Amino acid sequence: MSMSFERYMFDMVQPMRDDLTRLGIQELRTTEDVEEKLPSAKGTALVVVNSVCGCAAGQCRPGVAQALGHDITPDHLFTVFAGQDKEATAKARELFAPYPPSSPSIALMKDGELVHFIERHQIENRSAEEIAADLTNAFDRFCR
Q: Cα-flanking dihedrals φ and ψ of residue 26, to 5°?
């Protein structure tokens, strides 16, 4: 039996995408999606740079899910997938300066400007609960 690489990657990655989209987070899959949504998003926008790594599965995505159960949350929820939607991810990362590319990572933007950023090194050595607490503190500060 032969399976194409694209089909294999879809089958492997789709559950990782679903972890976020089932929370109501909108995927930005192209540079056009990013250009249309992020710079002009009024209010606050959470942007999760998703990844296939273990810290994305064990800490990042669960931490985001916990944080979105908070009373105060961002107005908009977006995700790009590093290594899968490469151009969209690169375009989103342009908005995260001065931070270097990092995946997974989590950005909080307000009126198109970066106001809070969690880099990979702040994800891989912390629990989902700690990441959720970091995010909810940022939500309390910037999403009111």
A: -90, 130
The one catalytic residue in 55, 56, 92, 143 is: 55
SS3 string, 55-117, reads: HHHHHHHHHHHHHCCCCCCCCEEEEEECCCCHHHHHHHHHCCCCCCCCCCEEEEEECCEEEEE
Q: What CATH class has 1-143?
A: alpha beta
Active-site residue, from 20, 53, 77, 131 = 53
pTM over 0.90: yes
Tell me the per-residue pLDDT of 38-95, one tens digit each, with 9 for 90 and over. 999 999 999 999 999 999 999 999 999 999 999 999 999 999 999 999 999 999 999 9
Return the domain boundaries, the chain: 1-143
